[in-house]
Structures are given as structure tokens and as C-alpha cells.
Amino acid sequence: MQSFGEPVSLRKHVAEAGIDFRLLAADARHAETEKLGNRLMQAVGRVVPALPVPLVATAMLQAGDNPLSLLDIKQRVSDLIGELERRGSYVHIPRADRDYAISVGLRMLTLRHLVLETDGSYRANPDELILLKYYANAIVHLFDGAAEAAE
Fold it and tell me: pTM for this structure?
């Protein structure tokens, strides 16, 4: 894998699809261009790292209205990281310290008031779910069936 992902050859793509963009009618050309665009976006999605904020946002959204302890959050995020690593996704762990990474992600979300902390428990701020979902959507493509978690 290159630093920016596997190269996508347009020549190979059109050969495999059996198409010649120059000979396609406008509607067919637009449809094939959309397919190529989707392929490119999937390739980009595979190499974009999962970062602490989207990981914690995902864990908080999965918890729904249930408050979580710091230990619960760390366990949930660790499970997410493990799943991503099993799938071959790159997870960026600052300082190579998973505990630190989770704490940073949680701190960023609490500073932005997307996650509320009360007496040592944390919950998603119901008034900020749209923005919390925005952060979680940065990695939703990396999970099968996760789209419903961040809709």
C-alpha cells in the first residue's frame, strides 16, 4: 500500500468495465462517472485514519441515552479500535497510548459540550446529536451495519 492508498488506474477501470467514455451517451457516461467516483471514495475511505474524536462519538451514540462511566467509554472505544484493526483499518493512536487517545477524544467532545459529564458519568448531549453524529460519520464507512448507529 502506498502512503496515499493503492493507485486506481483509469485505464484498468474502463477495461474491466468494458466501457469507453467517449462513446457513451450522456446519461450512461454520467452513470459510469458516478460508479468511478464511488470507487475512488471507497479507496480514499480505506486509508483515512480513524481518529479519537470520531471513535468516542461513535461509542457515545451507540450508548444512546444511557450514561457511561469513563471505564465504560474506554471499553467501548477499545472494542471499536479492536474491530477496526481486525478489519485492517488504520487507527491513529496519539503517543501510541490508547488510554490517552480515548481521553483526548472524550475531552474534545466535552469541551465542545457534545458530551455532558455529571458526577463522573458521561452522556451524549441531546441538543447536540447532529454534530456528534457528524463526527461519528467520519468513520461509519469502516464498519459493516454501522450506518444506522450514526444516521
Answer: 0.76
